UniProtKB/TrEMBL annotation:
Organism annotation: Falsihalocynthiibacter arcticus
SUPFAM superfamilies documented for this protein: Bacterial exopeptidase dimerisation domain, Zn-dependent exopeptidases
Alphabetized PANTHER family for the sequence: METALLOPEPTIDASE, PUTATIVE (AFU_ORTHOLOGUE AFUA_6G09600)-RELATED, PEPTIDASE M20 FAMILY MEMBER
Name of the protein this chain belongs to: Amidohydrolase
Family label: Belongs to the peptidase M20 family.
Peptidase M20 dimerisation domain span: 186-278
């Protein structure tokens, strides 16, 4: 593989950084130690400016090229997950109940590797903005960084990010133009009926019967309100009600997830859920209250930037290892907010067989560190050449 030689030389050093981050996972916006580690490294590399404390523990660092020009943004996430590590690696998490099970330690390290090379060589015009964000796994650290105005303040014109992908061959890039990751929302439905003795159901308004009928009615959104060739998930994932075999309870609770790629589909699902709640309420004499929570929006890759990123990936891993028309994924990504503000692209980078992300046995493959770092570095050099 044609990783940049100087970055290949950094492989062992990058592995040390990655494992140090892995041992000390932090959650959400509380990435204090992680951010301190990142800022310390960036200072050692001699980047031109470092602004800390963005979105609480996020960092934006700037590296100037040798000539004036635009600013390209490269983003890495820094946060871990609230779970107990069972990977068996010797550098496993030292923080009980916290684990880098999504490989954000690897993403942070790739961007640090690129930063070291770019600060040393500066074979580009314009500037690079290195965006290290907290709270990707819920909380929307990327959204908060956008709300705090990083795109305008640092005059960023384009943004790029990578995520590791288990089960995809080592070094294989996958991406696609348009929606790449889904908008992920959730809903709660609180059903208030009238409970009573199970022997006298005619004197009750049964919330359990409503919950079951409503859960089935919700399945008609995908099967009857939505075009069959488009992607949509609406799943009921929890129903809770009742305490005993001789009591019809007063209330029932439904919870579920909605995954969409287009805002008009999301709006249709919200409208149908409202209609179903009100329709079943009238039909069964109860009150079903919908609370809809919008999560991260869909991650939508821009055509020109995706083509450019795929070309850079080909120069590193070869034509056969880049799929620029890969299938989209029903999970969500906080980088979506950055792509709503600036054109750019999000790519997956294969790391080989092994446990999936968010599994306690997940292990990030350090082999892909120089590949990811080379991708970031070459993207800068190709996007903003000196000549
Ligand atoms: Zn994750
Ligand atoms: Zn992740």
């Amino acid at each position: 593989m044609a990783v940049i030689n100087r970055i290949g030389d950094l492989s062992a050093e990058m592995t040390t950084w990655r494992r140090a981050l892995h041992e000390n996972p932090e959650l959400g916006f509380e990435c204090h130690e992680t951010a301190a580690f990142v800022a310390q490294k960036l200072r050692e590399f001699g980047v031109d400016s470092i602004e800390e404390g963005i979105a609480k523990t996020g960092i934006v660092a700037i590296i100037n090229g040798q000539k004036p020009g635009p600013t390209i943004g490269l983003r890495a996430d820094m946060d871990a997950l609230p779970m107990q590590e069972e990977s068996g690696v010797e550098y496993a998490s030292k923080n009980d109940g916290k684990m880098h099970a999504c490989g954000h330690d690897g993403h942070t390290t790739m961007l640090l590797g690129a930063a070291k090379y770019l600060a040393e060589t500066r074979n580009f015009s314009g500037r690079v903005a290195l965006l290290f964000q907290p709270a990707e796994e819920g909380g929307g650290g990327g959204e908060v960084m956008c709300q705090e105005g990083v795109m305008d303040r640092f005059d960023i014109q384009e943004v790029y990010a990578i995520h590791n992908a288990p089960e995809v061959p080592v070094g294989k890039f996958e991406t696609c133009v348009g929606p790449n990751m889904a908008a992920v929302d959730s809903f709660d439905i609180f059903i208030k009926g009238t409970g009573g003795h199970a022997a006298m159901p005619h004197e009750t308004a049964d919330p359990i019967m409503t919950a079951v009928a409503l859960a089935q009615g919700i399945q008609s959104i995908v099967s009857r309100n939505h075009k069959a060739t488009d992607d949509l998930v609406v799943s009921v994932t929890q129903i809770h009600a009742g305490t005993a075999d001789n009591i019809i309870p007063d209330t029932a609770y439904i919870n579920g997830t909605v995954r969409t790629f287009a805002k008009d589909v999301q709006a249709m699902v919200m409208k149908r859920l409202e209609e179903l709640c009100s329709g079943y309420s009238s039909a069964y004499g109860v009150h079903a209250k919908l609370v809809y929570h919008k999560g991260y929006p869909a991650t939508i890759n821009h055509a020109a930037q995706t083509a450019k990123a795929a070309e850079v990936a080909r120069s590193i891993v070869g034509e056969a290892n880049v799929d620029a028309e890969a299938s989209r994924i029903m999970a969500a990504e906080d980088f979506a907010y950055m792509l709503e503000e600036r054109p750019g692209a999000y790519l997956h980078l294969g790391q080989g067989m092994g446990a999936q992300v968010h599994h306690p046995a997940y292990v990030f493959n350090d082999e892909i560190l120089p590949i990811g770092a080379s991708f970031f570095a070459r993207l800068v050099e190709n996007s903003q050449p000196l000549t």
